[in-house]
Amino acid sequence: MPGGDALLKPRANLIRMHLLIFVVFGLRAARMANLAIHTVLLFYFFSWGAFFVKKKAAE
Prior knowledge:
Blueprint: H1 4-29, H2 33-45, H3 49-52
Helix pairs in contact: 1-2
């Protein structure tokens, strides 16, 4: 399906944002938010796509 990735990317970001909300809530409920919030934010905002991009072979 052409353009299918363009339709799924915003939804993937929305799901990722909601997961972050639940993780932060769980950390606050466990009184561990101060210990782990920086790690959670790093995993959320870090550009993981840069590590998973396949490099094309030189022609």
